[in-house]
Amino acid sequence: MGGYVTMAFCRRHPDRVQAVVLADTKAAPDTLEAAANRERAAQRVLSGGDLTDTIPSLVGPTTLTDRAMVLGRVRGLVQSAPPAAVAWALRAMAIRPDSFDTLRALKIPALILVGEEDELTPLTEAKAMTEAAPDAHLEVLPNAGHLSAIETPEAFNKAVAAFLAKL
C-alpha cells in the first residue's frame, strides 16, 4: 500500500516531494473483478477467516522454496494483522484512483522497483509506470516477489541507496 499512499501524497502535495520510490505497486485502478475479490476477502477476514492462503501470491517462487525464515515472517505478519484494519485496507485499495496522471505530472526523480517474480504488480505494470513518469528509473530485483523489500532486503536497499546517492 505504500505506493498508493505515496501517489496520493504526490497528488495532494507535489511541492513537498523531492523524489519518490515506488516499490511493487501499480498506477492503474482495480478492475471490477479485482475490487470484487478484495471485497470478498474483506468480508472473509471480518467473519473470522484468515488470508494465509494469499501468501503464495505475496512472495515469489524463490522465497516459497528457498527462504523458510522469510516465509515464516510473512505468515506471522498476515496472521497478526487486525481484521478491521485488513478489511479497511482491502476496501481502500479497491477504490483507489488511477495514478497515471499523477506519474506524468511528477517533476522529480522516481525509482520504480519491482521483484522479477512479482505476480500482483508484475514487470509490465512497473514498465508502464516508468514510461509515464518523466524522470523515472526502473530497477528489477531478481528472485523477489511482491514483498521485495522483505524477500531481498540487501538488493532492495542497494537499489534505494544508489538512487538516493544520485539525488
Note the main attributes of this structure.
167 residues; mainly alpha; 3-stranded parallel beta sheet; single chain; Rossmann fold; globular
Description:
- The chain is mainly alpha-helical.
- It has one domain: 3-Layer(aba) Sandwich (Rossmann fold).
- About 55% of the residues lie in helices and about 10% in strands.
- It has ten helices and three strands; from the N terminus they run H-E-H-H-H-H-H-H-E-H-E-H-H.
- It has helices at about 1-10, 30-45, 55-60, 60-65, 70-80, 85-95, 100-105, 125-130, 150, 155-165, and strands spanning about 20-25, 110-115, 135-140.
- The protein has a three-stranded parallel beta sheet with strand order 1-2-3, sandwiched between helices.
- Helix 2 runs antiparallel to helix 6 (about 85-95).
Fold topology:
Blueprint (H helix, E strand, L loop, with lengths): L1 H11 L7 E4 L8 H15 L8 H4 L2 H6 L1 H13 L2 H12 L5 H6 L4 E6 L7 H10 L3 E6 L6 H4 L1 H13 L2
Parallel strand pairs: 1-2, 2-3
Helix pairs in contact: 2-6
Count, helices? 10
- Regarding CATH, which class? Alpha Beta
CATH superfamily: Alpha/Beta hydrolase fold, catalytic domain
Low-confidence stretches: none
Summary?
This protein is mainly α and 167 residues long.
